[in-house]
Amino acid sequence: MMPDPPGAPARMLSTLVRVIGDRSVAAAPSVAVPSLAAGTRKLVPALVGTILVLPSLVWVSIDRSIWPWDPSWYGEVSIDLWATLRTEPSNWPGAMAHAFGAKPPAVAWLGQFFVPLGEILGRDQTALLLSVVLCQAVTIALVYAALARLAGAAPAVCGALLVAASPLFVSMSHEYFAEPIQTVAVAWLVLIVARAPQRRAALTLAQLPGALALAMLAKLSSPAYVAAPAAGALLLLWLHRTRPPEPGPAWRDSSVLASSLGSAALVLGAIGWYRVNLEAAIRHARNASADNGLYGVDRGFARQFPDWIERLRDASFLPRFWVVVAILAAVSLTLASARGLRISLRDPRIVVGAASLVSVVLVCAALASQPNNETRYLLPLVPLVAVTFALLVAAARSRPILVVALGVLVLEFAGTTLQSFGYARAGGFAADRVTSPVEDSSFAATLEDVVRRTCTEDSSAGINVVGGEYAWLNANTLEMLAHSRYAEQGRRCYYTSLGYAESSAQAAWDRIGYLTPPYIIAVDYGNPGNPLPPDLAAAAGRRDPFNRVNRPILERVRESPRYEIVPGSRSSGLVIFRRVAEH
Question: How far is 221 from 192, CA to CA, in rounded Å?
Answer without folding.
Answer: 21
